[in-house]
Design brief:
Number of strands of chain A: 9
Shape of chain A: globular
Largest sheet of chain A: 9 strands, mixed
Number of helices of chain A: 7
Order of helices and strands of chain A: EEEEHEHHEHEHEHEH
CATH topology of chain A: Rossmann fold
Radius of gyration of chain A: 17 Å
CATH class of chain A: Alpha Beta
Structural class of chain A: alpha/beta
Distance between the termini of chain A: 24 Å
CATH architecture of chain A: 3-Layer(aba) Sandwich
Largest interface: A-B, 19 and 19 residues
Helix content of chain A: 25-40%
CATH superfamily of chain A: Alpha/Beta hydrolase fold, catalytic domain
Strand content of chain A: 15-25%
Oligomer: homodimer
């Protein structure tokens, strides 16, 4: 792990890092030392580790709960090099969408291509962050990700037993049904009632498929990008309930 | 308004009252004086003003937010006299249900019969409680009610402009669609995914019909009576967001 920058703002320390060739960001309480729960945030499609969606969750998680929060760039985004195959598939999907054509198999292929690299990247990142004395190896781990962050999150949470609670949603991919069924940890699942990209029936089927005994669907009116801000507060409460809180914030 | 008893426990003052021939309960902070937001709680079918569902909400609302909380017995329940027509309809519904027969028009008739008395009772209760100096006339008013308390709540919230936020749910009656469409205040709407009494599709149609710009559906697995306890905390946050909080708790 190589730290490339460290800054402090509003009581939150932000460290940018490279783990191998994966760039990431870690937010922790500026005044904090010692182990604490960790929340991984998966960014949305076309976004990156420091996008608004990520930072707007990371800061309240650190400040309200004393958590460590980490995000990494998905392949081909942020500070990662261009990824020709991902770029080809994104252009195919965007072109077909713009032409009003069905995107066909390009979309699952894109998701699969990103996931085949990003899931191992997340696991390596988690291995490394847990060696830090201000994160720790025996602390609970949560995951937050909507849209493409939900698409990847369902795969990651299904594969990664260290993650014990997750906020997921804005995704209804039918190819995720089996992975969803393998998830047994508590989940808060976010749905936008008028989401054209992830139609409500498909999102509800994926919610239904989750193997978790505790799972809550939160549905709000509006389109894909209009998740109400009070859902951030709700996710704080959800993680506090399942991961506990830490001092030092 | 005639007070019939007053007790204090855990920092909460409970006053039992009669307003005309309607028996009710009012919970306020024991140490509190001055006006405060008021939450009305509508009890479920076959329950009464001091049932567990009511009290388990009333106490956190008073203790966390400093609210006044009130509940009244629906016609034919609690300390109210038997109501022959309601009793006849309840027996008809129960008999048909036990026999595995469709309940037919008995159910909407029962709801209508209860509502024709209960909605005016609630409005008279609200008029009277707002004259108390420890409730006040210019404070926000919320309503909480699931199941039969949701059935009645949709009618009450649609009819009563003083109510500015409501937690409703566990109801999917198709005859409530028009009333739901008249509701424009923020709503948290509770659904149980495996509810046989209020099937999820019918509950979602009613959620969809709500005229509110801010409305959130909270769906959890399990049957009608298995709403998770963390939804109480969620309702505290919902009311705090929309009604504000008061001192004196």
């Amino acid at each position: 792990m190589h730290l490339t920058s460290e800054t402090v703002a509003d009581g939150v320390r932000e460290q940018l890092f490279m783990i191998g060739d994966v760039p990431g960001a870690l937010w922790t309480p500026a005044a904090g030392s010692g182990p604490r729960p960790l929340v991984l945030i998966g960014h949305g499609g076309g976004q990156h580790k420091k996008g608004w969606e990520v930072v707007s969750r990371a800061f309240p998680y650190v400040r309200s709960c004393g958590y460590a929060v980490a995000a990494i760039d998905a392949p081909g985004t942020g500070d990662r090099p261009e990824h020709p195959e991902i770029q080809r598939l994104v252009e195919l999907v965007d072109g077909r969408t713009a032409a009003g054509e069905p995107v066909g198999s390009a979309w699952p292929e894109l998701c699969e291509t990103v996931a085949s690299q990003l899931i191992p990247d997340w696991q390596t990142t988690l291995d490394t962050l847990q060696t830090l004395d201000y994160v720790g190896a025996d602390q609970p781990v949560g995951y937050y990700g909507l849209s493409q962050g939900g698409e990847m999150g369902i795969r990651l949470v299904a594969a990664e037993p260290r993650i014990t609670a997750a906020v997921l949603g804005l995704v209804g991919s039918e190819w995720l049904t089996e992975a969803a069924a393998r998830i047994t940890v508590p989940v808060e699942f976010v749905l936008q009632w008028d989401d054209e990209g992830a139609p409500r029936d498909s999102v509800m089927r994926l919610f239904d498929a989750l193997g978790s005994a505790e799972k809550t669907l939160h549905a709000n009116p509006g389109s894909h990008f209009r998740v109400p801000l009070f859902e951030i507060d709700s996710s704080v409460r959800f993680f506090a309930r399942h991961l506990g809180t830490a001092g030092g914030s």
